Amino acid sequence: MHEVGIAEMLSEIAIEEAKRHNFSKVSSLKVQIGEMAAVVPEALIFAFSIVSKGTILEGAQLSIEIVPIVARCDRCEELFEVENFSFKCPECGKVSDHCISGKELLLISIEGEKGEHPHV
Amino acid sequence: MSEISVTVVRNILEAQDRIAKSNRKLFEDHKVFVLNLMSSPGAGKTSLLERTIEAMKSSYRIAVIEGDIQSQEDALRIKRLGVETIQINTGGACHLDANMIQSALEKIPLNAYDFLIIENVGNLVCPAEFDLGEHEKAMILSVTEGDDKPLKYPLMFQKSSVLLINKIDLIPYVTFNTERVKKTVSELNPRIQVLEISCKTGEGIDKWVEWLRNRISLCKH
Question: Using the 8-state DSSP alphabet, how is residue B33 labeled?
Answer without folding.
Answer: E
